[in-house]
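Example S7 (structure tokens).
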């Protein structure tokens, strides 16, 4: 098995084994691309949500929250362009009967060419050692330039064909590149067809009066239709933002990458309303700000990169992804889009209601422009979880499985462990839990030898263990053990709460984003 695949399999099985993620309706053999979060997953998800919400809503005086309904008036989706344009180009392989996104097949082919460039860079870096100049190599090496041109030509053609809705050419491209079905290995493809990703449902009891609805495919539109409600009641002045976290639904076709691409998922979106003409500046501002948010978690700076879009969505005048190094390669984690006045202007047109802002500085009304930041909560979960899972070799030759989740996001902050189940140690440990539980999710564990308990907490991602032993009774101290370094130190019982407060101070973490 390829190494990447093996790592990804480990991530999925660890997530299940430790109560993070379960297949939905597993006892009925599951529902494809739908997942449930277990006891630890629910906590991690909540903590990521909070980390985002605090950074957005609490730390920015001009950003407020919203919680809009999943159901929306069906005209919303006409106005937003989703009824006409929220499609994926699909292609079937006639031998395996598997369905693929045609654009993804081509993009995966290009990713392979780009991997060849990376290989050349690695080889050259080894050969030249310290004197290696990567920039120069990338711009002068003939082989690299050849690969680069090939990749760019393919992407340009794909972009043009999709923009022109020339699906026949997308198919020709797949044929010319000799792309084979990963399952059957054959090149026996159908034509490319468009497929709308929205789930439909009905509102109302009788067939005659029922209204066709969609489950929202993004949370953003709930923000746009409430733009004036929030602006007026909050007396907000531009620039200001509205943030929301909530479920979104997409009938995804390629849904084979665990919680990376789900049919029911959660988005964390913020729409920032600005003066027309200032969008470039705010777009750059939010790109930088969001990248800093990611880096503040310390999962490794080189695991992130920007990808500027060549092919822009129907609503955008600039767009970039923050990509993350998932176990299956660099993929989109978050999108930052300059949406112009597309959404508000269209809602104004379709609803017949004015959605304008009166700018008291300019003494004029206008439809604001919008810069959006949009991240999938589940994708962020996968980023954190997959990067945190490591197998570590210890000095004594044994290995330990470690889930190095950033402490601020960890489901359980501390495990309180009496060394033995007697001599009054459990009572002291219970008292510590009683004290800490008001501020933190902590657990008590007395089963098995202490070493095994430490390993269990390492594997489930608990950053701190607090051990009560016989010495505790004499001098009122406990052992504090750190998950990542395995360092242990004795601290007074009276210091336990304060130590956790200092380690888990949201300020310490979020200060890094400025
Ligand atoms: P992709 O190209 O991967 O389909 P997208 O460009 O359609 O994503 P957006 O519409 O920009 O995604 O949505 C914003 C964010 O929502 C994405 O960056 C991603 O984190 C998340 N997201 C989108 N679709 C899914 C999904 N099916 N499952 C989980 N998260 C998703």
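Recovered sequence:
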């Amino acid at each position: 098995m390829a190494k990447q695949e093996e790592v990804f399999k480990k991530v999925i099985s660890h997530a299940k084994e430790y109560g993070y993620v379960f297949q939905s309706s597993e006892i009925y053999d599951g529902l494809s691309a739908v997942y449930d979060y277990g006891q630890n997953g629910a906590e991690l998800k909540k903590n990521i949500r909070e980390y985002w919400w605090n950074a957005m809503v609490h730390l920015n005086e001009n950003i407020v929250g919203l919680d809009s309904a999943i159901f929306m008036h069906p005209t919303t989706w006409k106005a937003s362009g989703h009824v006409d344009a929220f499609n994926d180009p699909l292609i079937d392989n006639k031998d395996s009967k598997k369905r693929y996104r045609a654009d993804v097949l081509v993009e995966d082919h290009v990713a392979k060419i780009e991997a060849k460039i990376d290989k050349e860079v690695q080889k050259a870096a080894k050969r030249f050692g310290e004197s290696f100049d990567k920039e120069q190599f990338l711009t002068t090496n003939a082989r690299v330039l050849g690969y680069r041109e090939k990749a760019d030509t393919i992407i340009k053609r794909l972009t043009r064909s999709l923009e022109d809705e020339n699906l026949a050419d997308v198919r020709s491209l797949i044929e010319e590149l000799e792309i084979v079905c990963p399952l059957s290995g054959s090149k026996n493809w159908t034509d490319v067809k468009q497929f709308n990703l929205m789930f439909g449902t009905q509102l109302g009891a009788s067939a005659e009066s029922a209204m066709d609805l969609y489950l929202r495919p993004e949370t953003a539109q709930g923000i746009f239709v409430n733009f004036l409600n929030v602006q007026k009641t909050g007396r907000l002045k531009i620039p200001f933002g509205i943030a929301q976290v909530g479920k979104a639904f997409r009938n995804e076709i390629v849904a084979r990458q665990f919680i990376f691409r789900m049919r029911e998922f959660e988005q964390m979106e913020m729409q920032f309303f600005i003066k027309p003409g200032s969008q470039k500046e705010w777009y750059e501002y939010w790109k930088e700000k969001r990248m800093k948010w990611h880096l503040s978690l310390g999962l490794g700076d080189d695991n992130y990169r920007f990808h500027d879009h060549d092919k822009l969505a129907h609503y955008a005048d600039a767009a970039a992804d923050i990509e993350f190094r998932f176990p299956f390669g660099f993929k989109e984690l978050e999108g930052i889009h300059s949406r112009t006045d597309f959404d508000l202007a269209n809602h104004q047109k379709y609803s017949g209601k004015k959605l304008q802002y009166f700018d008291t500085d300019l003494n004029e009304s206008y439809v604001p422009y919008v810069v959006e930041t949009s991240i999938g909560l589940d994708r962020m979960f996968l980023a954190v979880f997959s990067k945190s899972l490591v197998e570590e070799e210890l000095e004594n030759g044994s290995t330990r499985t470690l889930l190095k989740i950033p402490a601020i996001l960890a489901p359980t902050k501390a495990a309180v462990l009496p060394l033995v189940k007697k001599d009054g140690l459990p009572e002291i440990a219970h008292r510590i839990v009683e004290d800490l539980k008001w501020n933190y999710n902590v657990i008590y564990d007395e089963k098995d030898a202490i070493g095994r308990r430490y390993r269990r907490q390492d594997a489930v991602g608990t950053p701190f263990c607090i051990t009560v032993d016989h010495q505790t009774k004499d001098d009122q101290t406990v052992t504090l053990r750190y998950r990542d370094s395995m360092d242990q130190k004795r601290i007074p019982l009276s210091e336990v709460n304060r130590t956790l407060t200092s380690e888990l101070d949201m300020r310490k973490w979020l200060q890094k984003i400025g």
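Notes on this example. The CA atoms of residues 90 and 312 lie 19 Å apart.
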